[in-house]
Design goal:
heterodimer; A: 141 residues; Heat Shock Protein 90; five-stranded antiparallel sheet; 5 strands; B: alpha/beta; Globin-like; 2 domains; binds adenosine-5'-diphosphate; binds magnesium ion
């Protein structure tokens, strides 16, 4: 079961975040996500895309549809910004180095089925998340 | 290919030609669509406008900076160009059409320059004249672009206002149904309109209905909290209604704490609560 249908979108402005949300919503609908499942994934995408723009200085998002029948969706958000020195702190609720609520990263993790983050000072940040509609057979991230 | 010139710059010789042939050029320009179609009241007005343009370009050429769109001399004609553009746009002229009309000014100028100058000055003079007309075109395009922005801004503003209706539900109870994505421009308008309405209508309760909002992420939540806080500072109560199941779930999973902001599932529930506050009650007829 190989990945198919990869879409790559730039995330360098507010308008593009909105475009990213629409693209994720469409992919989720096509993959058979329920309304609640769609909303969770789109909300997570909104948080992660905004982090890419605000904290990472812009980057891109990739949408990959996994599997064939009951399909999952994988999203990757990549930037070459400053990176996150303390991932545990960044994931904890209320932690922010900006003006946000500090709930985006941890919240996104709770909203998806799988969550991975690859980052370090000066290395940029890549966040990968994946979700499947209920009852779908999962493939690994 | 180098022409052996008289030692004077192309800009300087063009400036001289523009001074010497001012009348001839203005008369020719006045007959072109750019001037003819705007100054319909009479040819004199068109000639005056053409004079103004010739004189401005002569000043620019005297200053030697024929390729610089920022020279102060050009500021003199900007308002006139903007007016001309407005008039032409109202008459249905498109931007490319307008720039083409500006480009037509070039032919008579080049002809006069070629005719006036001696062999040694002609080449550099034509180059400078072409550069000057290119600069004029850039100035026109700049104005066109800015006007486009103005129009888009204006339409955007209107759209924002149109999409933020404040509804009076009851004496001193108002509601604003939010529809679509809440960006910062929109929430700013919502907040201002709502606060104004609270004052105007002496509202005691303001209901923010988010039934039409597809998603509440941390930024939208922050907007809602700020609006609720501002409403409270005005002495009114704020209720957020229309929280659908999928929105409730994402708010919880994001870990957003709406604090002591009142929330209700539907607008009807919010209204019932508001009426209770006001001492009114809706009872079904037995
Ligand atoms: N892509 C990123 N690049 C650099 N730092 C990030 C990135 N994403 C998150 N962070 C860091 O993690 C913190 C927490 O992120 P988040 O939970 O989304 O809260 P907020 O965005 O409200 O600050 C941010 O304040 C920032 O310091
Ligand atoms: Mg964030």
């Amino acid at each position: 079961m190989s990945p198919e249908a990869v879409t790559r979108l730039p995330v360098t402005s507010d308008v593009q975040i909105s475009g990213a949300r629409h693209a994720v919503r469409e992919a989720a609908i096509a993959a058979g996500f329920s309304l609640v499942e769609q909303t969770k994934l789109v909300t997570a995408a909104s948080e992660l895309a905004r982090n890419t723009l605000v904290h990472g200085g812009g980057g891109h998002m990739e949408i990959t549809t996994l599997g064939r029948d009951q399909r999952g969706i994988r999203l990757t958000f990549t930037d070459s910004g400053p990176g996150i020195p303390d991932v545990a702190a960044a994931l904890s609720d209320g932690y922010t180095t900006g003006q946000g609520l500090g709930l985006g990263l941890g919240g996104a993790r709770r909203l998806v089925n799988e969550f991975a983050i690859d980052t370090g000072p000066g290395r940029g940040t890549t966040v990968t998340v994946a979700s499947w509609p209920r009852g779908a057979r999962r493939v690994t991230l | 290919m180098t022409a052996v010139g008289s030692g004077r710059s192309g800009a300087a010789v063009v400036a001289e030609v523009l001074d010497a042939r001012r009348e001839q050029l203005a008369q020719q320009w006045a007959d072109l669509p750019l001037f003819r179609t705007v100054y319909t009241s009479g040819r004199d007005a068109a000639v005056t406008a053409a004079h103004r343009l010739v004189d401005t370009l002569a000043d620019v050429a005297h200053g030697e900076r024929v390729e610089d769109t920022t020279v102060p001399a050009l500021d003199r004609i900007r308002p006139h160009l903007a007016q001309t553009i407005n008039a032409r746009t109202r008459a249905g002229c498109s931007s490319p059409q307008f720039t083409a009309e500006v480009a037509e000014l070039k032919t008579p100028l080049m002809a006069i320059v070629a005719q006036e100058l001696t062999d040694e000055d002609r080449y550099s003079g034509l180059l400078a004249a072409a550069a000057l007309m290119g600069t004029l075109r850039l100035v026109v395009m700049e104005i066109l672009l800015n006007q486009g922005d103005d129009i888009i801004d204006r339409q955007r503003q209107q759209l924002l206002e149109v999409s933020t209706p404040i509804i009076k539900l009851w004496d001193r109870v108002i509601a604003v149904p939010l529809i679509g994505t809440l960006d910062s421009a929109r929430t700013q308008v919502v907040m201002e309109t709502l606060l104004d309405a609270i004052v105007d209508q002496h509202a005691a309760v303001a209901i923010l209905d988010i039934t039409g909002v597809p998603l509440v992420d941390t930024v939208v939540a922050q907007y809602l909290m700020k609006t609720a806080m501002a409403v409270r500072l005005m002495g009114a109560e704020c209720v957020i209604s229309g929280i659908r199941p999928q929105i409730a779930q994402t708010i919880v999973q994001l870990g957003i704490d709406l604090g002591d902001i009142k929330t209700r599932a539907t607008l009807a529930d919010a209204l019932a609560w508001a009426l209770e506050q006001a001492g009114a009650r809706i009872a079904s007829k037995e």
